[in-house]
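Anyone able to model this chain together with FE2/S2 (inorganic) cluster?
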Amino acid sequence: MAKSSEESPSRRTFMMVVIGLISTVIGIALAVPILGAVLNPLFRKRDIVWTKLGKISDLNLKPLTPKFVPVYFRVKEGWSVNTLPRQVVVVKQVNGDLLFFSNQCTHLGCPLHWIAARQKFLCPCHGGMFNATGQVVGGPPPRPLYQWVHKFGKDKDTVYIQNKFKDNPKDRGI
Ligand code: FES
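re: yes, here you go
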């Protein structure tokens, strides 16, 4: 009898440890999916959405004379919905085609300026230069200007822009 009463505290301790371990495992099993659901939006890719650029006929485009048009994308990021301001540079080509460039330099992303006297986009950061067809004509940029994904409305005049570049290797919103 004396032996049994000596073992009792250690058995009780053992049972408490086992119960504690089981509780911990159950707690983790419940917490993981809840945490996953809560944190998931933080790690998701930015949504890809359309926004209206406007009517081409309102831009009074002249060949090889860029028009910088601001657009705003409403995208879900994490738990909030944000408005992302971006620039679309619309350039009518000599043959009448329209190109919808990003105003970001393809070197490190600085915003470009159009220098009318030189007929070139100039990057103020490292002197990158592009012509009106988007080709690199000077400086370190490794590739031509990015072009926004776009589509025309039923009226064939209104243009919609997606927050995505045509040849962007990353499948995510910009
Ligand atoms: S960011 Fe434009 S040349 Fe470097």
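Residues 33 and 39 are 10 Å apart (CA to CA).
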